[in-house]
Write a structure and sequence with these properties.
The chain is an alpha/beta fold. It has three helices and ten strands; from the N terminus they run βαβαββββαββββ. α1 crosses α2. The structure holds 1-O-pyrophosphono-5-O-phosphono-alpha-D-ribofuranose and guanine.
Length: about 170
Protein backbone atom coordinates (compact mmCIF):
# COMPACT_ATOMS: atom_id res chain seq x y z
CA UNK A 1 0.00 0.00 0.00
CA UNK A 2 1.35 3.41 -1.01
CA UNK A 3 0.40 6.62 0.85
CA UNK A 4 -1.00 9.28 -1.46
CA UNK A 5 -2.18 11.84 1.09
CA UNK A 6 -1.46 11.92 4.82
CA UNK A 7 -3.89 12.66 7.64
CA UNK A 8 -2.49 16.20 7.99
CA UNK A 9 -2.78 16.91 4.28
CA UNK A 10 -6.35 15.66 4.30
CA UNK A 11 -7.32 17.78 7.31
CA UNK A 12 -5.84 20.93 5.75
CA UNK A 13 -7.55 20.37 2.42
CA UNK A 14 -10.93 19.72 4.03
CA UNK A 15 -10.62 22.87 6.08
CA UNK A 16 -9.98 24.89 2.90
CA UNK A 17 -12.91 23.24 1.09
CA UNK A 18 -15.23 23.94 4.01
CA UNK A 19 -14.20 27.60 4.10
CA UNK A 20 -15.06 27.92 0.40
CA UNK A 21 -18.42 26.13 0.82
CA UNK A 22 -19.41 28.15 3.88
CA UNK A 23 -18.75 31.30 1.86
CA UNK A 24 -20.52 30.18 -1.35
CA UNK A 25 -23.49 27.99 -0.42
CA UNK A 26 -26.85 29.24 0.88
CA UNK A 27 -27.34 28.95 4.64
CA UNK A 28 -30.05 26.27 4.44
CA UNK A 29 -28.32 23.79 2.11
CA UNK A 30 -28.66 20.04 2.58
CA UNK A 31 -25.49 17.95 2.85
CA UNK A 32 -26.12 14.57 1.19
CA UNK A 33 -23.33 12.02 1.65
CA UNK A 34 -23.36 8.94 -0.57
CA UNK A 35 -23.02 5.84 1.58
CA UNK A 36 -21.04 3.89 2.17
CA UNK A 37 -17.68 5.32 1.15
CA UNK A 38 -18.36 9.01 1.85
CA UNK A 39 -19.25 8.68 5.54
CA UNK A 40 -15.75 9.46 6.86
CA UNK A 41 -15.21 12.42 4.54
CA UNK A 42 -18.70 13.75 5.24
CA UNK A 43 -18.17 13.59 9.01
CA UNK A 44 -14.94 15.59 8.81
CA UNK A 45 -16.40 17.99 6.26
CA UNK A 46 -19.50 18.62 8.37
CA UNK A 47 -17.42 19.51 11.42
CA UNK A 48 -15.11 21.74 9.34
CA UNK A 49 -18.22 23.46 7.93
CA UNK A 50 -19.48 24.08 11.45
CA UNK A 51 -16.14 25.65 12.41
CA UNK A 52 -16.56 27.96 9.41
CA UNK A 53 -20.08 29.00 10.45
CA UNK A 54 -22.19 26.64 8.26
CA UNK A 55 -24.72 24.31 9.88
CA UNK A 56 -26.45 22.28 7.11
CA UNK A 57 -29.14 19.64 7.46
CA UNK A 58 -27.82 16.15 6.63
CA UNK A 59 -29.53 13.28 4.83
CA UNK A 60 -27.92 10.16 3.35
CA UNK A 61 -28.42 8.22 0.16
CA UNK A 62 -26.81 4.86 -0.49
CA UNK A 63 -25.66 3.76 -3.94
CA UNK A 64 -23.71 0.70 -4.98
CA UNK A 65 -22.06 -0.40 -8.21
CA UNK A 66 -18.76 -2.07 -7.30
CA UNK A 67 -19.77 -4.64 -4.67
CA UNK A 68 -16.53 -6.33 -3.60
CA UNK A 69 -14.83 -5.77 -6.96
CA UNK A 70 -12.19 -3.27 -8.11
CA UNK A 71 -14.08 -2.46 -11.31
CA UNK A 72 -17.54 -1.00 -11.74
CA UNK A 73 -20.36 -3.43 -12.52
CA UNK A 74 -21.71 -0.71 -14.82
CA UNK A 75 -25.04 -0.63 -12.98
CA UNK A 76 -25.74 1.75 -10.09
CA UNK A 77 -28.23 0.40 -7.56
CA UNK A 78 -30.12 2.70 -5.20
CA UNK A 79 -29.94 1.05 -1.74
CA UNK A 80 -31.29 3.99 0.24
CA UNK A 81 -33.25 7.00 -0.98
CA UNK A 82 -33.47 10.39 0.73
CA UNK A 83 -35.46 10.33 3.96
CA UNK A 84 -36.57 13.94 3.60
CA UNK A 85 -38.28 15.96 0.89
CA UNK A 86 -35.60 17.75 -1.11
CA UNK A 87 -37.99 19.72 -3.35
CA UNK A 88 -36.85 23.33 -3.60
CA UNK A 89 -33.65 22.72 -1.63
CA UNK A 90 -30.01 23.31 -2.53
CA UNK A 91 -28.36 19.89 -2.19
CA UNK A 92 -24.62 19.29 -1.87
CA UNK A 93 -24.05 15.69 -2.96
CA UNK A 94 -20.85 14.40 -1.32
CA UNK A 95 -18.98 11.31 -2.47
CA UNK A 96 -15.59 9.85 -1.66
CA UNK A 97 -14.34 9.05 -5.16
CA UNK A 98 -15.19 9.94 -8.74
CA UNK A 99 -14.03 7.22 -11.12
CA UNK A 100 -16.33 6.36 -14.05
CA UNK A 101 -18.71 9.10 -12.83
CA UNK A 102 -21.69 6.72 -12.91
CA UNK A 103 -22.53 7.06 -9.20
CA UNK A 104 -22.49 10.85 -9.10
CA UNK A 105 -24.32 11.05 -12.42
CA UNK A 106 -27.02 8.77 -11.02
CA UNK A 107 -27.20 10.73 -7.74
CA UNK A 108 -27.40 14.08 -9.52
CA UNK A 109 -30.22 12.77 -11.72
CA UNK A 110 -32.17 11.57 -8.67
CA UNK A 111 -31.85 14.96 -7.01
CA UNK A 112 -33.00 16.81 -10.12
CA UNK A 113 -35.96 14.38 -10.53
CA UNK A 114 -37.06 15.12 -6.96
CA UNK A 115 -37.31 18.83 -7.72
CA UNK A 116 -34.30 20.26 -5.91
CA UNK A 117 -33.65 23.93 -6.60
CA UNK A 118 -29.93 23.38 -7.15
CA UNK A 119 -27.46 20.53 -6.93
CA UNK A 120 -23.75 20.92 -6.24
CA UNK A 121 -21.30 18.06 -6.49
CA UNK A 122 -18.43 17.49 -4.09
CA UNK A 123 -15.90 14.68 -4.22
CA UNK A 124 -13.00 13.92 -1.92
CA UNK A 125 -10.83 12.54 -4.72
CA UNK A 126 -11.22 12.60 -8.48
CA UNK A 127 -9.43 9.88 -10.42
CA UNK A 128 -8.01 11.12 -13.72
CA UNK A 129 -9.79 8.47 -15.76
CA UNK A 130 -11.08 10.90 -18.35
CA UNK A 131 -14.47 9.14 -18.13
CA UNK A 132 -16.30 11.75 -16.15
CA UNK A 133 -15.41 14.93 -18.02
CA UNK A 134 -19.04 15.88 -18.70
CA UNK A 135 -19.84 15.75 -14.98
CA UNK A 136 -18.89 19.10 -13.48
CA UNK A 137 -17.77 18.81 -9.88
CA UNK A 138 -18.06 22.00 -7.87
CA UNK A 139 -15.65 20.91 -5.14
CA UNK A 140 -12.74 18.47 -5.57
CA UNK A 141 -10.43 17.60 -2.69
CA UNK A 142 -7.62 15.74 -4.44
CA UNK A 143 -6.76 14.10 -7.75
CA UNK A 144 -5.39 10.59 -8.22
CA UNK A 145 -4.15 8.60 -11.17
CA UNK A 146 -6.59 6.48 -13.16
CA UNK A 147 -4.75 3.24 -12.36
CA UNK A 148 -4.65 3.79 -8.58
CA UNK A 149 -7.10 1.66 -6.63
CA UNK A 150 -7.79 3.94 -3.69
CA UNK A 151 -8.16 2.66 -0.14
CA UNK A 152 -8.67 4.27 3.27
CA UNK A 153 -10.51 7.37 4.42
CA UNK A 154 -13.80 5.56 3.85
CA UNK A 155 -12.76 3.67 0.72
CA UNK A 156 -12.70 -0.10 0.85
CA UNK A 157 -10.93 -3.03 -0.70
CA UNK A 158 -13.54 -5.78 -0.65
CA UNK A 159 -15.10 -4.29 2.49
CA UNK A 160 -11.84 -3.65 4.43
CA UNK A 161 -9.56 -0.65 4.98
CA UNK A 162 -12.31 1.97 5.28
CA UNK A 163 -10.91 2.98 8.69
CA UNK A 164 -7.38 3.67 7.45
CA UNK A 165 -6.99 7.36 8.33
CA UNK A 166 -4.93 8.29 5.27
CA UNK A 167 -5.58 7.90 1.53
CA UNK A 168 -3.60 5.09 -0.03
CA UNK A 169 -3.25 3.24 -3.30
CA UNK A 170 -3.48 -0.54 -3.12
CA UNK A 171 -1.51 -1.01 -6.36
O1 LIG B 1 -17.44 7.01 -10.31
P1 LIG B 1 -17.84 5.60 -10.05
O2 LIG B 1 -17.17 4.65 -11.02
O3 LIG B 1 -19.32 5.41 -9.99
O4 LIG B 1 -17.20 5.18 -8.64
C1 LIG B 1 -17.44 5.89 -7.47
C2 LIG B 1 -18.27 5.14 -6.47
O5 LIG B 1 -17.64 3.88 -6.16
C3 LIG B 1 -17.72 3.67 -4.76
O6 LIG B 1 -18.97 3.14 -4.42
P2 LIG B 1 -19.28 1.57 -4.33
O7 LIG B 1 -20.25 1.19 -5.38
O8 LIG B 1 -17.98 0.80 -4.26
O9 LIG B 1 -20.03 1.46 -2.93
P3 LIG B 1 -19.49 1.80 -1.45
O10 LIG B 1 -19.49 3.30 -1.34
O11 LIG B 1 -20.53 1.15 -0.60
O12 LIG B 1 -18.12 1.21 -1.28
C4 LIG B 1 -17.58 5.06 -4.19
O13 LIG B 1 -18.06 5.16 -2.89
C5 LIG B 1 -18.35 5.91 -5.17
O14 LIG B 1 -19.70 6.10 -4.79
N1 LIG C 1 -12.28 1.74 -2.84
C1 LIG C 1 -12.42 2.26 -4.07
N2 LIG C 1 -13.65 2.38 -4.58
C2 LIG C 1 -13.72 2.92 -5.83
N3 LIG C 1 -14.82 3.13 -6.58
C3 LIG C 1 -14.39 3.66 -7.73
N4 LIG C 1 -13.06 3.78 -7.76
C4 LIG C 1 -12.62 3.31 -6.56
C5 LIG C 1 -11.33 3.18 -5.98
O1 LIG C 1 -10.28 3.53 -6.54
N5 LIG C 1 -11.30 2.64 -4.72
Amino acid sequence: MRTLFTEDEIAQRIDAMAAEMARDLPKDFLLAPVLTGAFIFAADLLRALYRHGADPHVDFVQLSSYGGARASSGVVTLLKDFSVDIKGRTVLLVDDVLDTGRSLHFGKGMIEDRGAKDVKLCVFVKKLTGHAEDLKCDYIGFEAQADDFLVGYGMDDDGRKRGLPLLGSAN
